């Protein structure tokens, strides 16, 4: 017998419209000798050895609460980036701080804008706040400033821009970000999600630090999950104008960043060498992968991140789904991106040399059949 819905707790309007986030797979079929996880944009070099050591050292004092203000972590971030730690708010992954911004600035009926192939976490948090997700179309799989500005209404409260974006790997130059900001009403919050900023090697790119310092309505979010190789630790941060840092500090969990994460983050921030080696590795293999995949006749969206979006032929035998099955059976786990509006593409994280060469070799065989 089912109990009528009115007799049990029901979530507020909008919650049941949310489609839960589907993370990248991590398992291959039994019997595969070696698994290469290339589905979540993790660092193929792993975490900084200093961060690993720092986490080991925390193990002996797990009974103690962490510093709720994550002071040392904010200081380490501030020192590395030349920022005032008072304007930094740390979080349990940058997903958390993105959610807190939505929760704080979107009321039911308000609108939050993101782009056509934008990071899906924005939609989830906009809906969780009871607000309306508004999608701006892209041009050439790239955010389009005019299309975003056209979507602004009196109900718009937030614009989320991943720059570079995931899963496309495309970016818009700083001039375009400034043009977007200039076109927004001053009460609209512009969130610049710079999760992949460290990977970008372009003179016309800026993550957004200067804009946050100059305006009251811009926030930049960053993560330790990608270049720092600390996805499992869940550490993100936002650089904000003081009035926004104040808001976030009121609504965040009092101990939202755990003790191991704080120590790992401090050590990772200080390890410039590991970051530079990661950037070098990525530069080399991003270029190699883009060329080799193009040589196979596959279209690759031009990426400035640590991943590539690979488009497959329309025929059923060589579709993205077929390629995914073929690669998975050989231990190469890529990311399906149908939910991002790419039913016939796969996203591949730039991996180790072995993984990159292995995927290209496997796809060469796959396309021959
Ligand atoms: C991976 C990613 C994040 C970071 O997520 P965390 O919660 O910090 O692990 C944020 N934004 C984008 C666009 C991403 O791809």
From TrEMBL:
Any GO molecular function: histidinol-phosphate transaminase activity
GO biological process: L-histidine biosynthetic process
E.C. number(s) listed in UniProt: 2.6.1.9
Primary enzyme class: transferase
Record-annotated Aminotransferase class I/classII large domain positions: 34-363
N6-(pyridoxal phosphate)lysine carried by residues: 226
Catalytic activity line of the entry: L-histidinol phosphate + 2-oxoglutarate = 3-(imidazol-4-yl)-2-oxopropyl phosphate + L-glutamate
Keywords of this entry: Amino-acid biosynthesis, Aminotransferase, Histidine biosynthesis, Pyridoxal phosphate, Transferase
Co-factor requirement: pyridoxal 5'-phosphate
Pathway per the UniProt entry: Amino-acid biosynthesis; L-histidine biosynthesis; L-histidine from 5-phospho-alpha-D-ribose 1-diphosphate: step 7/9
Pfam families: Aminotran_1_2
Domain of life: Bacteria
UniProt keyword annotation of Transferase present: yes
Quaternary structure (record): Homodimer.
NCBIfam families linked to this entry: hisC
HAMAP family noted in UniProt: HisC_aminotrans_2
Family recorded in the similarity comment: Belongs to the class-II pyridoxal-phosphate-dependent aminotransferase family. Histidinol-phosphate aminotransferase subfamily.
PANTHER family membership: HISTIDINOL-PHOSPHATE AMINOTRANSFERASE, HISTIDINOL-PHOSPHATE AMINOTRANSFERASE 2
Protein name: Histidinol-phosphate aminotransferase
Lineage of source species: Bacteria, Pseudomonadati, Pseudomonadota, Alphaproteobacteria, Hyphomicrobiales
